[in-house]
């Protein structure tokens, strides 16, 4: 009996030791200038350029499929660079957009990318039977409704001028920057000669999206080992120049193990904001690694605490202000984020060109909060429910701070945590008082979906007439200067009405090994920019 | 006749007690367990700080004279949280197990005593419940129950843990019900409940007690796992499991041991001591062992 047990223990120990050593052997190996390895937290569910359900999917899609342009924010200005299009012109009316596709832009099977492919992509997205999440990106095009869908008999504002040149008309004049970001950078073009005959309602289940061999981007699809990695091979015929890197692997690595992979040099690039960042605890250590460039940059997303407007006691502006005063937001930035972030003073980030610097209204002030609550007749025996989604560990920790801060101001708080889908369902059904959510949007300041009455992401259910009016005006205004004035005003009204308390903008914390050159992030902060220019050194 | 069974058990229990006291690890276990219980009950007196108060000056602070075991990721005193968390673990262990021992004993006694179709139906239900992977079904039940909380964890563990106990009791009751003393009790007209309660169950209790002890240790582990996954005790209430959620990065594991060693150690100690007690009880109550 004893002998057996000893032998068993020995065997288990051996298995454990081998198990610990094995990954190092498998994943290590010499670095090659031909291979780059990117890491992200979760697997993609498919590679459908118009419907993959998450940023993880789009991160992979963007190696294989391009839109007309790529976008990047430089010196607080949105800049556009050629991708499939080599030229684009904005009509004087801000309503006509002409694109010329690069003469050498071609599919991976050699067929040229044409205006027909773009038309096919737009017709597919706008077909009510198609499953897609790109609708909002094309909604401004003439003939489409607010969800980007085409009513029966409606004429799409699209004209083919030459095989590689086309013109798009929008319903009303729009800000060219907005249009170029939405349609230009975020709509990836599908191959008509491969998918043209698939009925729109069957497209989402088409096997092509698990094996997308015909793309138009700088890299070609090789294979996806489920939950392990995606492999790409360079497209030597890419029209903007063949990539220097031969193979790109996008590996799926849980947040906790990312640091070890970076440290060992098994990972070259961590995917961007929210999909492959370095944990805040690990950040100092990554900054100290000799072979790594630790890149942090203001991300376009922020965290906020929303109020349930169905509760009469939260409809009083003074109560909401009191809560804003009560919460120690600077502590979240200095301690939770270790300074890698910025206080959120409103729904438009400081790095955004439309940010209004003059709005800084609600300092941390417990006494002021208590006074405001007393003034508003707050019932200090009432317990409010703070709903918190799991997953984002910093956000979960911020809930503990919020609770302590509110208790200090005299408000009783009960925290309720749940997984994200349950959390959203609870917000939609209104079974909460306060709720934590994060938001990451495009650079464009039109935040109607969150703040307008009945907006898709207006979880708090607020309805503020003045705000609606300003948001509608902003969406219709095409002139950038006038538009800026409208959104300056919006931010002032937001600070006054306070439909929610914005907490902080966390910086995106990413790591890039120093052997990699030309690794940049695009305007969204999520994705890599111009991956065809990546160069991998041998150090 | 009715004096016969109790007098036999009385001497059996006193023998068992003597045997238990000779099991050294078990005695160490029960003393340590007693200390844990005192720590849980006297938490407000022992804890140097409130378990929820945030010290804005030190997040993830090293152990110091103010915070003997340092502070956690939101600046709360680790030692105080550790002490308060004993309440959660012990109450989950004791209450959940009490609940499922009651259910399991009743179901097992009914199945074993009546046999036939009743036994068949109840046994199949036990088989079905035992064939589910426990942690998955518990996770599912906790989320279906509405919001996760200490009480929900206790109720779910209590409702799902009984089949193992029921099987034990059923086997014991089945073996005992044809023995002469049971036949005799029936012959003089004792009712079914009286036979089960007075004659069968007292004789079937020893293995149940052992199972319950090991069950308590298991319940503490399950609570820790659930809280680690965020499906157990809700913040800011500390539990050893949710204290461990701080340790999800390599840097914390390597450079901030005060965040995860203390709660890990407490889980280890509590489970180990309860298992020692269980070992002692098993040896003490083994009917084949003589003094």
Helix/strand layout:
The complex is a heterodimer of chains A (539) and B (291).
Chain A: H1 2-27, E1 35-40, H2 55-64, E2 69-74, E3 77-82, E4 85-90, E5 96-101, H3 115-126, H4 135-138, E6 158-162, E7 165-169, H5 176-186, H6 192-195, E8 219-225, E9 229-234, E10 247-252, H7 255-264, E11 269-270, H8 283-287, E12 292-298, E13 301-307, H9 317-326, H10 329-336, E14 341-343, H11 366-375, E15 383-389, H12 393-408, E16 412-418, H13 420-429, E17 434-440, H14 448-451, H15 465-476, H16 480-497, E18 500-513, E19 516-517, E20 520-521, E21 528-529, E22 535-536
Chain B: H1 4-22, H2 24-41, H3 43-46, H4 78-114, H5 116-130, H6 134-144, H7 150-160, H8 162-176, H9 180-187, H10 192-228, H11 240-243, H12 250-255, H13 261-285
Distance from N terminus to C terminus of chain B (CA atoms, Å) equals 27 Å
Compute the number of helices of chain B.
Answer: 13
CATH class descriptor name of the largest domain in chain A: Alpha Beta
- Summing up helix and strand content along with how strands pair, one would put the structural category of chain A as alpha+beta
Mean of residue pLDDT of chain B? 87
Question: Do you know the CATH architecture of chain B?
Answer: Orthogonal Bundle
Strand content of chain B: under 5%
The assigned structural class of chain B equals mainly alpha
Task: Report the CATH superfamily of the largest domain in chain A.
Answer: Dipeptide-binding Protein, Domain 3
Q: What is the CA-atom radius of gyration of chain B, in angstroms?
A: 22 Å
Instruction: Give the total of beta strands of chain A.
Output: 22
- The helicity of chain A comes to 25-40%
**How much β-strand is present in the residues of chain A?**
15-25%
Please summarize the sheet with the most strands of chain A. Answer: 7 strands, mixed
* Residue runs with pLDDT of under 50 for 5 or more positions of chain B: 1-6
Biggest protein-protein contact in the assembly? A-B, 30 and 24 residues
DSSP E strands of chain B, number: 0
Q: What's the CATH topology label of chain B? A: MetI-like fold
The total number of structural domains of chain A is: 3
């Amino acid at each position: 009996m004893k002998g057996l047990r000893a032998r068993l223990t020995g065997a288990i120990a051996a298995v454990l030791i081998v198990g610990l050593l094995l990954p190092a052997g498998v994943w290590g190996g010499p670095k090659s200038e031909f291979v780059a390895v990117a890491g992200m937290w979760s697997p993609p569910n498919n590679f459908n350029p118009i419907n993959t359900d998450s940023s993880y999917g789009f991160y992979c899609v963007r190696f294989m499929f391009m839109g007309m342009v790529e976008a990047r924010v430089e010196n607080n200005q949105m800049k556009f660079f050629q991708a499939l299009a080599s030229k684009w012109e904005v009509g004087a009316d801000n309503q006509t957009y002409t694109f010329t596709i690069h003469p050498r832009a071609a599919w991976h099977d050699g067929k040229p990318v044409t205006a027909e492919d773009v038309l096919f992509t737009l017709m597919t997205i706008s077909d009510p039977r198609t499953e897609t999440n790109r609708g909002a990106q094309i909604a401004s095009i003439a003939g489409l409704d607010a969800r980007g869908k085409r009513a029966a008999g409606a004429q799409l504002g699209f004209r083919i001028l030459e095989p590689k040149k086309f013109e798009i008309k929008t319903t009303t004049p729009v800000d060219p920057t907005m249009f170029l970001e939405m349609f230009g950078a975020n709509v990836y073009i599908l191959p008509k000669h491969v998918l043209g005959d698939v009925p729109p309602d069957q497209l989402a289940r088409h096997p092509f999206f698990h094996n997308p061999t015909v793309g138009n981007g700088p890299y070609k699809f090789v294979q996806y080992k489920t939950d392990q990695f995606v492999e790409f091979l360079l497209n030597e015929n890419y029209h903007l120049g063949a990539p220097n890197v031969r193979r790109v692997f996008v590996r799926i690595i849980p947040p906790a193990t990312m640091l070890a992979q970076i440290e060992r040099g098994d990972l070259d690039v961590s995917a961007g904001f929210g999909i492959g960042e370095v944990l805040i605890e690990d950040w100092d250590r990554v900054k100290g690694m000799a072979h790594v460039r630790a890149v942090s940059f203001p991300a376009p997303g922020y965290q906020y605490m929303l109020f349930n407007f169905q509760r009469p006691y939260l409809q009083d502006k003074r109560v909401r202000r009191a809560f804003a005063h009560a919460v120690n937001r600077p502590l979240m930035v200095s301690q939770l984020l270790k300074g890698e972030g910025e206080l959120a003073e409103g729904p438009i980030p400081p790095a955004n060109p439309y940010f209004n610097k003059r709005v800084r209204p609600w300092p941390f002030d417990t006494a002021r909060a208590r006074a405001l609550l007393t003034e508003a007749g707050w019932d200090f025996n009432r317990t409010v429910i703070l709903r918190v989604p799991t997953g984002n560990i910093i956000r979960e920790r911020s809930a503990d701070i919020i609770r302590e801060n509110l208790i200090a101001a005299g408000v009783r708080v009960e925290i309720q945590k749940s997984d994200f889908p349950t959390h959203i369902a609870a917000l939609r059904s209104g079974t909460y008082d306060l709720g934590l959510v994060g938001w990451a949007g495009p650079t464009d300041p039109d935040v109607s979906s969150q703040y307008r009455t009945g907006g898709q992401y207006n979880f708090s259910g607020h309805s503020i007439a003045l705000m609606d009016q300003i948001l509608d005006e902003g969406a219709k205004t095409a002139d950038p200067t006038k538009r800026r004035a409208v959104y300056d005003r919006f931010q002032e009204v937001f600070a006054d009405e306070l439909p929610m308390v914005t907490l902080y903008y966390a910086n995106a914390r990413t790591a890039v090994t120093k052997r990699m050159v030309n690794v940049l992030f695009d305007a969204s902060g999520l994705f890599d920019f111009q991956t065809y220019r990546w160069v991998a050194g041998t150090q | 006749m009715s004096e016969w069974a109790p007098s036999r058990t009385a001497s059996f229990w006193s023998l068992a007690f003597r045997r238990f006291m000779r099991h050294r690890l078990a005695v160490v276990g029960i003393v340590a367990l007693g200390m844990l219980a005192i720590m849980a009950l006297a938490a407000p007196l022992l804890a140097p700080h409130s378990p929820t108060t945030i010290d804005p000056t030190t997040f993830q602070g090293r152990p110091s004279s103010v915070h003997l075991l340092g502070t956690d990721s939101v600046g709360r005193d680790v030692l105080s949280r550790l002490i308060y968390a004993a309440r959660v673990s012990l109450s989950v262990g004791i209450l959940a197990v009490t609940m499922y021992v009651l259910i399991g004993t009743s179901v097992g006694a009914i199945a074993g005593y009546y046999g036939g179709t009743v036994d068949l139906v109840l046994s199949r239900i036990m088989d079905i419940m035992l064939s589910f992977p426990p942690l998955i079904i518990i996770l599912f039940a906790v989320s279906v129950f509405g919001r996760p909380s200490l009480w929900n964890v206790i109720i779910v563990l209590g409702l799902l843990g009984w089949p193992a106990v029921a099987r034990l009791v059923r086997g014991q009751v089945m073996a005992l019900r044809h023995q002469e003393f049971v036949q005799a009790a029936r012959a003089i007209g004792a009712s079914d409940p009286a036979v089960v309660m007075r004659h069968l169950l007292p004789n079937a209790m020893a293995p149940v007690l052992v199972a319950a002890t090991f069950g308590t240790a298991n319940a503490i582990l399950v609570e820790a796992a659930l809280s680690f996954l965020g499906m157990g005790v809700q913040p800011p209430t500390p539990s050893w499991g949710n204290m461990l959620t701080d340790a999800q990065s390599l840097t914390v594991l390597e450079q901030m041991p005060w965040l995860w060693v203390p709660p890990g150690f407490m889980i280890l100690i509590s489970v180990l001591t309860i298992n020692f007690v269980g070992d002692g009880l098993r040896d003490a109550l083994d009917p084949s062992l003589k003094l």
